[in-house]
Design goal:
Elements (H helix, E strand, L loop, with lengths): L8 H14 L4 H20 L36 E8 L8 H6 L4 E9 L7 E3 L3 H10 L3 E7 L5 H15 L8 E4 L9 H4 L4 H17 L4 E6 H7 L2 H5 L4 E4 L13 E8 L8 E8 L3 E3 L2 E3 L5 E2 L2 E3 L4 E5 L5 E3 L5 E3 L3 E9 L4 E8 L63
Parallel strand pairs: 1-2, 2-4, 4-5, 5-6, 6-7, 7-8, 11-18
Antiparallel strand pairs: 1-9, 2-3, 8-9, 10-13, 12-16, 14-17, 15-16, 17-18
Helix pairs in contact: 1-2, 5-7
């Protein structure tokens, strides 16, 4: 990633002063250039000697020239339907960057170095001199931003320590791209990780420990390595099942057959706003897609349809009187009619779902009941007379054989004259 600087930083400070003066710079611009160059010199003296990125990290033997732009690339067939996103990665070696100019030049993403572990025996953790400025400025101009950390961990504990160091430096700052662990050999010298003679399993475990801790904190994590490391020194197939792989291979047509989502193809690309060469990448981004194509909702019904895609995703409606949509993609019908909900990705892809909300049927009328008549009382029946009974009374004064029999019956008034 980083490039070797032949001259010392003090020489650079003098050069900056001389150049600014020759170009007729104002007093403030000259002072700014000198101030930055002196800061670079101090940083170099304090930390730079063990920066594993101070040498060129490209270990690819190329038959032809290294490409400098995406237009020179031949993409593998598996990425035919992907959006190709222009991405750069930067560190202190690009010095002060004009991020407005970078954005105007068409760059859409930036991976910024957060820091590194020194490759000496002490293994000091160091924050990149321009980390915070680059992070905030790239975000301000609207780029999608991620980070990388150059590891020199020799075991899982140190890998976790590096992850904690990155998280502490971020302090919750939101990112739209992953945090990558940059694992590679120190070019031009022997690093502490090289001296450790780690096995493939141990190197892979270091990557997993770093990425797992980053993901536990709510960020996405990935692994950066060149083709040689991915095919020889890491179990890349295992890593790619859990994390995105950022491939470094400086060529126009990579032959790497493993999984990867981003390809660093150059270390010498030219971008407006950056002095000198810069690393250039193509990020393969899935187009957004929303399912189904048509959605029928009843009034006030709410649903989140299935959708996928890479990049920052946003939603909008063409007619808010029919249906509205929130940032999560939840669509709510608010009135009858038809409209389209649009889903957009920062990678430039767009998709739609057509929403139909039928008119609500009028509420059914309550059935009217016939007036109820007062209940009629059942006819009263005339009281029934008790049947006549014959009572035999015995006169105790008479002898038994002369008992007098008296007949008692109800008195009935005659209804007609009695004829003898």
């Amino acid at each position: 990633m980083g490039k070797i600087r032949k001259q010392t930083q003090l020489v650079a400070a003098f050069s900056a002063l001389l150049l600014a003066t020759q170009m007729g710079g104002t007093g403030s611009s000259v002072l700014f250039a000198v101030k930055n160059a002196v800061a670079d010199a101090v940083y170099e003296r304090e930390f730079g000697q063990e920066d594993p990125q101070r040498f060129s990290t490209s270990n690819n033997t190329l038959a032809g020239a290294i490409p400098t732009s995406m237009s020179q690339l031949v993409h593998q067939a598996r990425f035919m339907d992907y959006v190709k996103v222009d991405c750069i990665d930067v560190s202190r070696y690009q010095k002060s960057i004009d991020w407005d100019a970078v954005a105007r030049d068409g760059v859409q993403q930036a991976i910024i170095r957060m820091g590194y572990r020194g490759y000496g025996d002490a293994g000091t953790l160091v924050t990149d001199q321009y980390f915070r400025t680059n992070l905030e400025e790239a975000t301000r101009v609207g780029l999608e931003v991620g980070l990388y950390f150059y590891t020199q961990a020799t075991n899982v504990s140190e890998a976790i320590q590096e992850a904690e160091y990155v998280l502490s430096g971020l302090n919750g700052y939101p990112l739209s791209l992953p945090i990558y662990l940059d694992i590679e050999k120190v070019e031009g010298d022997t690093g502490r990780m090289d001296k450790a003679n780690l096995t493939t399993a141990q190197r892979t475990a270091i990557c997993e420990a770093f990425c797992d801790r980053i993901q536990q904190a709510g960020y996405r994590a990935g692994v950066y390595a060149n083709k040689t490391w991915l095919t020889t020194y890491l179990y890349a197939d295992e890593l790619s099942q859990k994390y995105p792989i950022w491939l470094a291979h400086y060529t126009t047509n990579t032959s790497y057959s493993g999984d990867f989502t981003m390809w660093q193809f150059s270390d010498r690309s030219i971008v407006n706003g950056i002095s000198g060469g810069v690393d250039r990448n193509v990020s393969y981004s899935r187009k957004v897609n929303i399912i189904p194509e048509t959605l029928t909702l009843s009034n006030m019904e709410s649903i989140i349809p299935e959708f996928y895609g890479d990049g920052r995703i946003s939603f909008d409606t063409f007619n808010g009187d029919v249906a509205v949509v929130d940032n999560s993609g939840r669509i709510t019908a608010v009135g009858s009619g038809e409209t389209d909900i649009v889903i957009r990705s920062s990678n430039g892809s767009v998709d739609y779902v057509h929403v139909i909300v039928p008119e609500s049927a009028p509420p059914a009328e309550e059935p009217t009941e016939a007036p109820t008549e007062a209940p009629t009382e059942p006819p009263t029946e005339a009281p029934t007379e008790e049947p006549s009974e014959f009572v035999i009374e015995t006169n105790p004064e008479l002898p038994t054989e002369n008992d007098h029999i008296v007949f008692t019956a109800p008195v009935v008034e005659p209804t007609a004259p009695f004829l003898p």
